[in-house]
Specification:
Layout (H helix, E strand, L loop, with lengths): L4 H8 L7 E5 L8 E3 L2 E13 L9 E8 L5 E2 L4 E4 L2 E9 L5 E4 L11 E3 L4 E8 L3 E9 L15 E7 L8 E13 L2 E8 L9 E5 L4 E7 L5 E5 L4 E7 L4 E3 L7 E2 L1 E4 L4 E6 L5 E7 L2 H4 L11 H7 L6 E7 L13 E10 L8 E5 L18 E4 L4 E7 L7 E4 L15 E2 L2 E2 L8 E6 L5 E7 L4 H5 L3 E7 L10 E8 L9 E3 L8 E3 L3 E9 L7 E7 L2 E2 L1 E7 L2 E2 L8 E2 L1 E4 L3 E9 L3 E9 L4 E9 L1
Parallel strand pairs: 1-3, 1-5, 3-7, 6-12, 13-16, 15-24, 25-28, 27-34, 35-38, 37-47
Antiparallel strand pairs: 2-3, 3-4, 7-10, 8-9, 8-11, 11-12, 13-14, 16-22, 17-21, 17-23, 18-19, 18-20, 18-22, 23-24, 25-26, 28-32, 29-33, 30-31, 33-34, 35-36, 38-45, 39-40, 39-44, 39-46, 41-42, 41-43, 41-45, 46-47
The chain binds copper (II) ion.
Copper (II) ion binds next to loops.
C-alpha cells in the first residue's frame, strides 16, 4: 500500500490531505541512509489510518512516525546500527499539537526531552557507543509513556545497536496498546505486537534446532507477561531504555514467562526441538482476548483464524523433524481428567471442577478450586484423557510442559501440518500425551480465552517428580494464586481458592518445598514473601517455571520473589524448629493483599 503521490506532496507541503495508511512494521529493515559510519534519518510524525485488527475491523485515526517520503508505520522506523555509528535524526512534526520526543540519544544515559512544535522540526546528532536494545517514543505535550492514549500511543520505535563484529539473527517485537474511543462512553483497548493484533500478527517460520533470539520492547502503558508455548527460553539481557544489561551466564535461568514493565526491554534465546505451531503471547487475559467493549467481529475468516484470541499473540511455525525421543523409563501413565461445571443460583459465574478419578491426586484446599495436584514422573510417557462434562467447549494447556504442539491446548492453531488441535466439545474427550523431560512445578489451565473458565477455577497444579520420588503433602506445599469471579474492574485474588486461606502446615525438622504458582488472569506484578514476626524469612530458591535454577542462584537468601501471571517458583525452607510463619502476597505496588499462616509443627 503506497500513498498516492499527490497525497505525499500535499502532506510534505504541510497541507491537509487524505490521511495515510499506517502500516505494521516487522522491525526487519533498518531505516535511514547509511554512509560508512554515518546514519541519516528523517522522521515525520503525521496522522494516519490504522487497522491493527484487519480489514474488517474499525479503523483508528492515530499519529505515527514514518520516514520522509514513506508511509507512516507502527511501530515507527527501526534505527539499527553497529556501535560507533554517528546518527543524525531530524524529527518533523506534522501534527496539530506539540510533541515531546524521548529516546533519541546515546546510551547508557537518560535522553533529554525533545520538544517539537506543530509544523516544526528538531534535529539531534549522537554516536551510538554501546550495543543493546533501546527505544524512542513521543507523546502529546508532557504526557508520560504510561499515560499515552488514543492519538499518540503508537508513536514509537526501536533503536538497536549491534556489536561492531555484527549480531546474530534476531527478531524484535514492539508491544504497544492503542486506546481508542470508538464510542465516546467506552474506551477500547487494542494491544498490538509490531503494529498488529492477532490473528493479523506475523507468523514466524523456523526450523527444528534453530537458535532463535526474540527481543521485546514494551512501549505500552501496561506491564506484560510474555509466555512461550512448548519450550523454555533463556533471558540474556534486560533493559529500561536508558541501559541494556547483559545477564551474567551464572544467573540466566530458564523460563516460560517473562514480565516486562512499561519502558522495559528483554532479549531471550530459545531453540525449538519439535515441529509444530507455537504461540508467543502475553499471558494477561485482557491482552490476549478481544476487548469486550469492542464491536464484535463476526467475519468468519477472522473467527476461524483467531481461535478466540486477539491482541499480543504471535505464531511460530516450526518445521523439521524432532530428534528421536529417549527410551521411556516405564510404561504409559494414564489418567482421566473430568471437568464439570456447577452453576450458581444467580446464573452468573459458574464454578468449574476438575477431578482425576481413580488417581491419587491430592487437593491443596477444601472445595473444588484449584483442581487437584496432578503428579507425574519425569521421563515417563503420560496420557491424560480430558473429559468435558460441561455445556461449553474448552481446551487445556499444559503450561511450561515440553509437549507436542497438537496436545498443547491451542484449538484452531496448535498442531503440525494438516492435524490441527480441536476444541474439546461439550461431552467430548481429548487425549493429551507428553513425556516431561524435567522435574518441576507446572500448571494445567483452560486455554479457552474465557475469563469465566479461568476465574471459575479451571486450573490446577501439575508437579513433575524425578523417578522414585513420591509427592508428600506434609513437606511439599503448592500455593496457587488465582482470581475469583469478577463483577467489577478489580480481580479479587485468591490463594488456593480462598480469600482467607487455611494454614499451610510445614513439618518441623526437615526441608519443606514451596511451589508458588500465579494463574491470576491479569496480575503480572505479584510479590510473594515469607515472614516471621514481621521480618522477611529465608529460603533457598530451587526452580522457576518448572526448570531448576542455575547453581549460583540456589543459595539461601531473603524469602521474597516476584511472581508474574503464568510463572511458577520453587523454594526450599529449612523448617528446623516449630514456629509461626506467614506467606504474604502483594499486588503491584499496593498493599499486602492475601496472607496465609504457615505453621511449622
Ligand atoms: Cu500483556
Amino acid at each position: 500500500m503506497i500513498l498516492p503521490l499527490l497525497a505525499i506532496l500535499l502532506a510534505s507541503a504541510g497541507v491537509d490531505a487524505a490521511p495515510a495508511t499506517v502500516l505494521p512494521n516487522d522491525n526487519t529493515h533498518a531505516a535511514g541512509r547509511l554512509d560508512g559510519h554515518r546514519l541519516t534519518l528523517a522522521l515525520v510524525a503525521a496522522n494516519g489510518t490504522f487497522r491493527p485488527e484487519g480489514p474488517h475491523a474499525p479503523a483508528h485515526d492515530i499519529a505515527a512516525f514514518g520516514e520522509e517520503w514513506q508511509p507512516p508505520s507502527a511501530p515507527g522506523p527501526l534505527v539499527r546500527v553497529k556501535a560507533g555509528t554517528e546518527i543524525s535524526i531530524t524529527v518533523r512534526n506534522r501534527l496539530a499539537y506539540e510533541l515531546t520526543v524521548h529516546g533519541l540519544c546515546n546510551r547508557p544515559g537518560t535522553c533529554p526531552d525533545q520538544p517539537v512544535a506543530p509544523g516544526g522540526a528538531s534535529s539531534v546528532r549522537f554516536t551510538a557507543t554501546t550495543p543493546g536494545l533501546y527505544g524512542y517514543w513521543a507523546a502529546a505535550g508532557t504526557t508520560p509513556l504510561d499515560e499515552r492514549s488514543t492519538a499518540d500511543s503508537e508513536l514509537n520505535g526501536v533503536i538497536a545497536v549491534d556489536p561492531v563484529e555484527g549480531a546474530p539473527p534476531d527478531r524484535i517485537f514492539v508491544v504497544a496498546i492503542l486506546a481508542d474511543a470508538i464510542d465516546l462512553n467506552d474506551l477500547t483497548f487494542i494491544p498490538t505486537m509490531n503494529g498488529a493484533s492477532w490473528p493479523y500478527t506475523e507468523r514466524l517460520h523456523a526450523g527444528v534446532g534453530d537458535d532463535l533470539r526474540f527481543r521485546v520492547v514494551n512501549l505500552s502503558f501496561e506491564s506484560h507477561a510474555m509466555h512461550l508455548h512448548g519450550f523454555h527460553f533463556q533471558v540474556y539481557a534486560h533493559g529500561d531504555l536508558t541501559r541494556d544489561r547483559q545477564i551474567p551466564l551464572s544467573r540466566r535461568s530458564l523460563a516460560v514467562t517473562e514480565r516486562i514493565s512499561p519502558g522495559e526491554t528483554f532479549s531471550m534465546r530459545w531453540m525449538p526441538t519439535r515441529p509444530g505451531n507455537w504461540l508467543f503471547h502475553c499471558h494477561m487475559v485482557a491482552h490476549m482476548t478481544p476487548d469486550p467493549a469492542a464491536p464484535a467481529n463476526h467475519d468468519p475468516h477472522d473467527m476461524r483464524m483467531s481461535g478466540g484470541m486477539a491482541g499480543l499473540v504471535v505464531g511460530v511455525i516450526v518445521t523439521g523433524t524432532a530428534p528421536p525421543a529417549p527410551a521411556a523409563s516405564a510404561g504409559v501413565d494414564r489418567a482421566t481428567m473430568a471437568i464439570t461445571r456447577e452453576d450458581n443460583a444467580s446464573g452468573k459465574h459458574p464454578t468449574y471442577r476438575v477431578d482425576f478419578p481413580e488417581r491419587n491426586a491430592p487437593r491443596i484446599a477444601e472445595g473444588s478450586i484449584p483442581g487437584p495436584v496432578l503428579v507425574v514422573q519425569r521421563g515417563r510417557p503420560t496420557a491424560i484423557s480430558i473429559e468435558n462434562h460441561t455445556p461449553d467447549p474448552t481446551a487445556i494447556h499444559w503450561h511450561g510442559i515440553e509437549i507436542d504442539s497438537y496436545f498443547d491446548g491451542v484449538p484452531g492453531f496448535g498442531g503440525n501440518g494438516a492435524s490441527v488441535t480441536p476444541p474439546i466439545a461439550p461431552g467430548g474427550t481429548f487425549v493429551a500425551t507428553f513425556t516431561p523431560p524435567r522435574a518441576g512445578t507446572y500448571i494445567y489451565h483452560t486455554h479457552w480465552h474465557d475469563l469465566d473458565q479461568l476465574s471459575g477455577g479451571l486450573y490446577g497444579p501439575l508437579v513433575v517428580l524425578p523417578p522414585g520420588q513420591t509427592f508428600d503433602p506434609a513437606t511439599d506445599h503448592v500455593v496457587m494464586i488465582g482470581v475469583t469471579n469478577i463483577d467489577g474492574e478489580e480481580e479479587p485474588l485468591v490463594l488456593n481458592g480462598k480469600r482467607k486461606p487455611a494454614p499451610i502446615v510445614f513439618r518441623a525438622g526437615v526441608a519443606n518445598r514451596l511451589r508458588l504458582i500465579n494463574i491470576s488472569g491479569n496480575n503480572v506484578a505479584l510479590v510473594v514473601r515469607l515472614t516471621e514476626r514481621g521480618e522477611t524469612a529465608a529460603w533457598t530458591p530451587r526452580g522457576r517455571d518448572g526448570a531448576a535454577l542455575p547453581g549460583a542462584m540456589q543459595v539461601s537468601g531473603v524469602a521474597r520473589t516476584p511472581l508474574t501471571v503464568g510463572g511458577t517458583f520453587d523454594a526450599e525452607i529449612a523448617a528446623s524448629r516449630p514456629r509461626q510463619l506467614w506467606l504474604e502476597v502483594r499486588r503491584g505496588t499496593g498493599q499486602w493483599e492475601l496472607q496465609a499462616p504457615v505453621d511449622v509443627k
